[in-house]
């Protein structure tokens, strides 16, 4: 619980990290989440941070699942792994880096849980959380974190110092009840040269300068989810968008015309079958596609699954939808409008 010192600072009007329950808010609702294009502009003075609920075990066997509770000696509290965004980072990059620095663990990010918001001194701190499966690494006590306790989630909730962290854990617990057995990182190709100014075969229209940067910045974002395979529609701009990821990961890019706009317009059943086949493979796959097929496919997946998606479905160039599936049905969707740094 908050210390006497933290209560005193709260009364004085200058709130610190350990006072976050005093005026904190949570935005953890819904299995459909959209990251703002410019999250730093949500408040007048924003301090952005990102972290995760670290877990290990088998989600199909709930009794085996444990989550990490970290002890910070500076605050003498029990909380979740998180940290501030550095320049030239996306929120996902921050989450992965901070977890590694604080805990020593490598993680595979999963479902976006939402964010907590609370005042710290003269800024508003906004912390984005994901679930994060530990895939490797080793904890060594350090100045930031001197102890980690792995506990069943109910015990972890009881140990947490802050109500906001308890709420994040409760949301993770809810998501764990319907574990994803497949994920698709559904990417719209990065920005290409203007169609109107391109006289050749449209399938050969290349990325422009911004598009090439987008493709490079997609690497750390997509890598955070540990993809096991990469698919692409036929156009060169789609293949080039995922080429840096293929180089970094050592994965081949499987090109299939069924993932493109033409297939969606001319053979919708075949396009749907292609996505269904990827879902059936399980694990995590990247599919790079185009601007017509992505909204249509998402609407179809929503209608077939358990996740209603109302309103317009966005698919900006260089954007990513992280789609979660359970037993073949769409159960969650997180939209990243850009992979570019947030500050």
CATH superfamily of the largest domain: Nucleoside Triphosphate Pyrophosphohydrolase
Report the structural category.
alpha/beta
Number-wise, the strands total 15
Oligomeric status of the shown chains?
A: single chain
Q: What's the number of helices?
A: 10
Domain Nudix hydrolase: 45-174
GO molecular function: bis(5'-nucleosyl)-tetraphosphatase (asymmetrical) activity
Biased composition (Basic and acidic residues): 13-23
Organism: Corynebacterium lujinxingii
Structural features, described:
The chain is built from 10 helices and 15 strands. By secondary structure, the chain is of the alpha/beta class. Helix 4 runs antiparallel to helix 5 (about 165-175) and helix 6 crosses helix 7 (about 235-250). Pfam families: His_Phos_1, NUDIX. One of its GO terms (molecular function) is bis(5'-nucleosyl)-tetraphosphatase (asymmetrical) activity.
Search tags:
343 residues; alpha/beta; Nucleoside Triphosphate Pyrophosphohydrolase; Rossmann fold; 8-stranded mixed sheet; 7-stranded mixed sheet; 10 helices; 15 strands; bis(5'-nucleosyl)-tetraphosphatase (asymmetrical) activity; NUDIX hydrolase
What is this entry, summarized?
It is built from ten helices and 15 strands. With 343 residues, it is an alpha/beta fold.
Reconstruct the topology from this structure.
Blueprint: H1 4-12, H2 20-23, E1 25-27, E2 32-34, E3 46-56, E4 66-72, E5 77-79, E6 81-84, H3 91-103, E7 105-120, E8 123-137, E9 147-151, H4 153-159, H5 163-176, E10 182-188, H6 209-223, E11 229-232, H7 236-249, E12 253-255, H8 261-266, H9 268-281, E13 283-289, H10 293-304, E14 320-326, E15 329-336
Parallel strand pairs: 2-15, 3-8, 10-13, 11-12, 11-13
Antiparallel strand pairs: 1-7, 3-4, 3-6, 4-5, 4-9, 7-8, 10-14, 14-15
Biased composition (Basic and acidic residues): 13-23
Region (Disordered): 1-23
Domain Nudix hydrolase: 45-174
């Amino acid at each position: 619980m908050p210390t006497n010192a933290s209560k005193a600072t709260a009364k004085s009007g200058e709130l610190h990290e350990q006072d976050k329950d005093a005026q904190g808010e949570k935005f953890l609702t819904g299995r459909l989440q959209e990251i703002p294009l410019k999250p730093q502009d949500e408040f007048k003075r924003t301090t952005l941070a990102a972290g995760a609920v670290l877990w290990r075990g088998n989600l199909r066997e709930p009794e085996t699942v444990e989550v990490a509770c970290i002890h910070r000696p500076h605050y003498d509290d029990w909380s979740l792994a998180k940290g501030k965004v550095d320049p030239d980072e996306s929120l996902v990059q921050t989450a992965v880096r901070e977890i590694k620095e604080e805990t020593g663990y490598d993680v595979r990010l999963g479902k976006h849980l939402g964010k907590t918001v609370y005042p710290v001194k003269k800024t508003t701190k906004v912390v984005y959380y994901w679930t994060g499966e530990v895939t490797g690494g080793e904890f060594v006590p350090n100045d930031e974190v001197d102890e980690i306790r792995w506990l069943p989630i109910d015990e972890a909730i009881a140990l947490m110092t802050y109500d906001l962290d308890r709420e994040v854990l409760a949301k993770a617990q809810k998501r764990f009840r319907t574990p994803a057995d497949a994920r698709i990182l559904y990417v719209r190709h990065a920005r290409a040269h203007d169609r109107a100014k391109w006289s050749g075969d449209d399938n050969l229209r290349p990325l422009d300068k911004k598009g090439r940067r987008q493709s490079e910045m997609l690497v750390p974002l997509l890598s955070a989810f540990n993809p096991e395979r990469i698919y692409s529609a036929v156009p060169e701009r789609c293949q080039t968008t995922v080429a840096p990821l293929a180089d970094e990961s050592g994965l081949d890019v499987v090109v299939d015309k069924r993932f493109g706009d033409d297939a969606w317009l001319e053979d919708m059943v075949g396009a749907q079958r292609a996505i269904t086949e990827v879902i059936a493979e399980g694990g995590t796959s990247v599919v790079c596609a185009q601007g017509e097929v992505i909204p249509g496919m998402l609407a179809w997946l929503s209608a077939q699954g358990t996740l209603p998606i109302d309103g317009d479905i966005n698919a900006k160039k260089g954007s990513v939808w992280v789609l979660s599936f359970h037993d073949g049905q769409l159960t969650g969707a997180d939209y990243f409008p850009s992979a570019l740094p947030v500050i």
